[in-house]
Design goal:
Blueprint lengths: L8 H28 L6 H16 L2 H6 L1 E9 L2 E5 H10 L6 E13 L3 E11 L8 E12 L2 E11 L2
Parallel strand pairs: 1-6
Antiparallel strand pairs: 1-2, 3-4, 4-5, 5-6
Length: 161
């Protein structure tokens, strides 16, 4: 019995192998990205970061104080450190210039243990007294657990404001 060899069979086989190879590489890349992507260790931490920014944008000093530790510190290149009470007053005062903070994209980095979590992100600050494009900077926060809830203990901002 003779084996019939069709023209183009080898070419089709090469294409099938190439397509399968690309699919496998894509899957491996997706798994690697998913394993190392900077996502919050849990939803409660991301909710805290979101609420913290919302308190700034709402110029709500009371909400801000509810989200930070008693020994909270805010540091910037322009000054500080400011404690929780001083920073809450700044949050309220910034309403005069319609000051807002917008996180750019997803957090760049999450790291942590049971004692403390750290997050960093790029942000844009806007205000009626800033240039139209605002100012871009970087923030890093230290988050700790106090009485079964997470609070921001430290916020370091690098950039112009």
């Amino acid at each position: 019995m003779a084996v019939r060899h069709e023209e183009g069979t080898e070419r089709r086989l090469i294409w099938v192998v190439a397509v399968l190879g690309v699919a496998v590489l894509g899957l491996v890349g997706w798994v690697a990205y998913d394993a190392f992507a900077p996502t919050a260790p849990n939803g409660e931490l991301q909710e805290l970061v979101d609420a913290y920014h919302q308190a700034w944008n709402d110029h709500d000093g009371e909400a801000f104080l509810a989200l930070v530790t008693d020994d909270y510190v805010m540091e910037t290149a322009q000054g500080g450190p400011n404690d929780a009470i001083a920073q809450a007053a700044n949050v309220v005062e910034m309403a005069e210039s319609d000051w807002t903070v917008v996180v750019i994209g997803e957090p760049l980095w999450w790291e942590g243990t049971d004692d403390a979590y750290y997050v960093s992100f790029a942000n844009r600050l806007t205000s009626t007294v800033y240039p139209e494009e605002g100012y871009e900077g970087m923030s890093m926060m230290k988050i700790v657990e106090v009485d079964d809830t997470y609070l921001v203990a430290r916020h370091i901002y690098y950039g112009r404001y």
